[in-house]
Design a protein that fits this description.
Helix 8 runs antiparallel to helix 9 and helix 9 runs antiparallel to helix 10. Helices cover 61% and strands 5% of the residues. The relative contact order is 0.09. With 274 residues, it is mainly α. Strands 2-1-3-4 form a four-stranded mixed β-sheet.
Amino acid sequence: MKTLNNHLILFDAECPMCSLYTKAFVSAGLIESAGRAAYQQLNQSACPMVDRQRAVNEIALVNQTTGEVTYGINSLFKIFATAMPALKPLFAFTPFVWIMSKLYAFISYNRRVIIPAPINTHTFEFKPTFKLHYRLFYLAFTWIITAYILTAYVHLMKGLLPQGYAFREYLVCAGQIFFQGAVMYHIAKDKLWDYLGNLMTISFAGALLLTIGLLAAHWFALPVIVYVGYFMLVVGCMFLEHIRRSKLLGLGWTLTISWALYRALILLLIFIAN
């Protein structure tokens, strides 16, 4: 693969995801070792053609010879097209570019709730722009996938947990968003959407862990108690992650207590109803 030389990619040092994949570009030889830099560390006089706020939202790639700057998915296309020239026609295909640009924006505008920044960051003057429609779409996406996986996993606990109706888990997951959102609204309204994004990332991650149990069920005939035990282990991990992310957001214990209370209340109602 050919390396893209004389270019500088500007990544978000407060975003673990951004740091990781730009390091991977260097390790894979897609860009040269000196071809990445955090925009937080960029001198004001350096790269004057860079739109700083746009670079925070969409990763910027600077041609150090001409000064030309590309942003977002076009930056990534340029790197991959240099490494794999056969893909250039695909990167010029308008429908594909449109789809990938929307996918890129979906991830980029939610990146700090997917993988939150460390607690000692947030010192740079420019911050990622908040776009409500991308956050709402993220909440809807994680809600649907999480509820779908939970619906399938509940069948593995048959006999110990009432099965209920087909859309029960969808209502439970949606109820969690509204319940925690109401609590958050009264505690720290300014952090509402950041919290809900983190909340659903935790739920989504927990659901993905449950797919291990679903895959195991296809290969092994395990006792129901094993699936229940694994489910409780995943819930425990989610509880710890909720505590960690609440700390990163500067929140107290109220949200974690209400999170656990909601789940306990729902479980009680499920048993009462059956």
